[in-house]
Amino acid sequence: MRLRQHVNPLGIGFVDLRAAPPQLPAGRELEVEIGCAEADFLFDRAAAVPDHQFIGLDVRQGMVDLVNHRAAAIGAPVQALFCNANLHLRRLLPAGRVSRVFLNFPDPWFKMRHRKRRLIDEALVRDIHRASVPGAEVFVQTDVWSIALDAMGVLDRLDDLFDNRAGAWSFWKQGNPYGATSGRERACTREGKPIWRLLYLTR
């Protein structure tokens, strides 16, 4: 099955929430990847810490179906939900529940007229904070310089909500600390492309 790499999240078909809030087992740390694609990152995390629960959010139904089929086949504590995170995160995740949020290589939308489609904005970041426990980790990776700058701009301006672990207005320079990689990260590493990373703790 051929899946589209990019879809317009502002399309009318993504306005209504069709996914139900996930059932979250009590006593298990919750980790969430926004824009999970095939969720390779989450499956790596699940193999390392199988006592945690993992939720992936994606705007492509085909990707969601593939992730859930794979999780069921191997018995991994991973679930994908079809949604537009910019619109639906607050309705899907309860307040004060998430321990880690990952935003790995969000779609670049290079053309100026498409910039409004980019994932990371202040509303989403505030919803992430609401869903997170105090001290939760928020990790961003991208190989697109303008996205890295935009993400830092949003998160560092909200310094009453987030603490930049690398220092104010600085990138995280100690690599990926999670022992998990997405397909895009592996491709960037093979091709020698730079990756900019940000790591924050919620206040």
Describe the model.
The longest helix has 14 residues, at 61-74. The protein has helices spanning 40-48, 61-74, 85-92, 122-131, 145-157, 183-191; strands at residues 30-34, 53-58, 78-82, 98-104, 132-142, 162-164, 196-202. 31% of the residues lie in helices and 22% in strands. The model has no long low-confidence stretch (mean pLDDT 91). The chain has a seven-stranded mixed beta sheet, sandwiched between helices. 36% of the residues are buried. The chain has a single domain (25-202), classed as 3-Layer(aba) Sandwich (Rossmann fold). β4, α4 and β5 (132-142) form a beta-alpha-beta unit.
Strand numbers in spatial order across the main sheet: 3-2-1-4-5-7-6
Q: Could you say how many structural domains there are in total?
A: 1
Taking all Cα atoms into account, the compactness measure Rg is: 16 Å
Secondary-structure element pattern, one letter each:
EHEHEHEHEHEHE
CATH class: Alpha Beta
User: In percent terms, what proportion of residues is strand?
Assistant: 15-25%
Helicity range of the residues? 25-40%
Specify the number of helices: 6
Largest sheet: 7 strands, mixed
CATH superfamily: Vaccinia Virus protein VP39
Distance between the termini: 43 Å
Low-confidence stretches: none
Based on the model shown, name its key terms.
single chain, 203 residues, alpha/beta, Rossmann fold, seven-stranded mixed sheet, 6 helices, 22% strand
